[in-house]
Amino acid sequence: MKITTVKDFYDDELESFCEVQGRGEWTLVVSGYWGQDMYHSGHVAYYMRETVPGTWVLQAVQRNTELDGVSEEDVEEGRLNDDQIQAMWGMTLEEAQYQIYEHIVAVVQEVPVRASRRKIAKALYSAALVIGAYAVEESDDKESLL
Fold it and tell me: Quick one: pLDDT at residue 8?
């Protein structure tokens, strides 16, 4: 198996691997909360999909958790902290709460036909962590592969 990762977690150089359509649905690898410190945290989910026979991609899907539990009433009455105000920058509360960021962070090629999905998921997720992808510290899904 040959694994390629982006150089930096936010690069988009592997997006072309997702342009090939029709090999199946996205499968959840792992999802949950990550945190580096009080000001750097959020939710991330990793999904994988086979794009052509023997080639699988790992997609990171992130969202900001600063606005979890915030209501429109909180906004109208000015009960937001600086981080919540920044998370809403130029958007309505609903738009900001549903804002997600998706990008391909790793690709594995030359995968044997009989390779298990769990083995592929571990290889892709491990490679993503090496380049600085957010590690799930608190999983929120028992149905994931990892």
Answer: 65
Q: Kindly indicate the confidence band of residue 112, based on its pLDDT and cuts at 50, 70 and 90.
A: very high
Three-state SS for 123? helix
What pairs with residue 64 in β-bridges? none
- CB contact at 8 A, 88 and 96: yes
In the chain, how many H helices and how many E strands? Answer: 4, 6
pLDDT (0 to 100) of residue 39: 65
Residue 67 buriedness (CB in 10 A; 0-12 / 13-18 / 19+):
buried
- Give the rounded percent of residues in the chain with a pLDDT score beyond 90: 49
Nearest to 54 by CA among 126, 123, 1, 17: 1
Say whether pLDDT at 95 is over 80. Answer: yes
**Amino acid present at 1:** M
State both tokens at 125. Answer: 């997720």
- Write down the pTM of the prediction: 0.82
Tokens at 70, concatenated: 């915030």
Instruction: Give the strands of the sheet with 40-52, arranged side by side.
Output: 2-5, 100-109, 55-63, 40-52, 27-37, 138-139
88, two tokens: 């809403």
